[in-house]
Specification:
The protein has about 325 residues and is an alpha/beta fold. It has one domain: Alpha-Beta Horseshoe (pyruvate-formate lyase- activating enzyme), CATH 3.80.30.10. The protein is about 35% helix and about 15% strand. It is built from 14 helices and nine strands. It has a nine-stranded mixed β-sheet with strand order 6-5-4-3-2-1-7-8-9. Strand 2, helix 4 (about 90-100) and strand 3 form a beta-alpha-beta unit. It binds iron/sulfur cluster.
């Protein structure tokens, strides 16, 4: 099984309920950013640049839990910033798990050893460790030597303590897919539970533009790595992968992956900011969704990020005959 059965059945039950209620737009994954502060300055990160003026501010634990309840998505991805430096991160994770959610804690992995005692293993909780390549490439991407080794140490500590661990990799123009093959083989040896992969997004705030891929070069890179996708346990769905390889089109469903941060509900999506809304309902109902997506907004032109397209098929948009079978087969990989 790719994911724990309790996790899959909770998500499937939620989707079925939404479909039966004929809801048109509903959230699948809440991107919760309790803070934007980080101990690193990764080259491709838009957050530490866009939110520089509020970098010292944090949501309280209660504000985070209110956002979880207000949104109602079955999955909560705690990101940032570096959420492991958020005071009370263990308590926050425990309280979201009490609400029967699936939690991904996105981290650079450097503080797992120090903070592991703040968490309890659960089949609905993953440490999601950022790794963009093997030692040399990853340390260049995060602009500090030694980060890869600390992240790997964190993965080993978490696995030994019985936690689920996945990794999250962003593909840039200089990313070597052969090196990622080596990385995933290495992580498979460490019994990592799954790999997430997404092309990078060209944030306005990031000044080094040449690191980002165009839509055509994303397709080319992901097509060329076909064999790699059959070898390892990817959390990336087969439908999203077909999209990345240019084998099908998907509509952007950014409304399924809302972002809540210190300024409010970020609209329209995790990547671009036109407005911060006071409530989740405002984000959902007041955003002109029809104006976003490739071919509609120039900022969306080269976006193929998971936050826009990974959940598209799951919420029943852009589906084809046979998609359900593909998704079930993937789950039982
Ligand atoms: S295509 Fe990408 S940038 Fe545009 S709205 Fe969707 S997720 Fe955001």
């Amino acid at each position: 099984m790719l994911f724990p059965i309790e996790m899959t059945s909770r998500i499937a039950g939620y989707v079925m309920k939404k479909k039966m209620s004929r809801a048109k737009k509903y959230p699948m994954v809440l991107m919760l950013e309790p803070l934007h502060a980080c101990n690193l300055t990764c080259t491709g990160c838009g957050r530490i640049r866009e939110y520089e003026s509020t970098i010292k501010q944090k949501l309280s634990i209660q504000e985070c839990l209110d956002a979880v309840d207000e949104c109602g998505s079955p999955v909560v991805s705690i990101c940032g910033g570096e959420p492991m430096i958020y005071p009370g991160i263990g308590e926050l994770v425990a309280k979201i798990l009490e609400r029967k959610k699936v939690v991904y804690l996105c981290t650079n992995g450097m503080f797992i050893r120090k903070k592991i005692a703040d968490f309890k293993p659960s089949n609905r909780f993953f440490f999601n460790v950022h790794l963009d390549g093997m030692r040399k490439s990853h340390d260049i991407a995060v602009e500090r030597d030694g980060v890869f080794d600390l992240a790997i140490d964190g993965i080993k500590v978490a696995k030994e303590a019985g936690f689920l661990v996945c990794t999250n990799t962003t593909v840039f123009s200089e990313t070597s897919m052969a090196e990622l093959d080596e990385l995933f083989a290495y992580l498979t040896g460490l019994e990592v539970d799954g790999f997430m992969l997404s092309p990078g997004y060209d944030y306005d705030a990031v000044k080094v533009k040449e690191i980002f891929l165009t839509r055509d070069s994303i397709k080319e890179k992901f097509r060329a790595a076909e064999a790699m996708f059959r070898k390892y346990k990817f959390n990336t769905s087969p439908i999203y992968l077909e999209f990345l390889q240019g084998k099908r089109e998907l509509e952007c469903t950014a409304w399924a992956t809302p972002t809540r941060n210190i300024k409010g509900w970020k609209g329209p999506c995790y990547l671009i900011t036109d407005e911060h809304h006071a409530t989740f309902d405002d984000l959902l109902t007041k955003t002109p969704w029809e104006k976003y997506g490739p071919g509609k907004d120039p900022r969306c032109e080269h976006c193929m990020m998971h936050v826009g397209f990974e959940t598209t098929a799951a919420v029943g948009v852009s589906t084809k005959l046979g998609d359900t079978f593909k998704m079930i087969k993937w789950q039982f990989t």
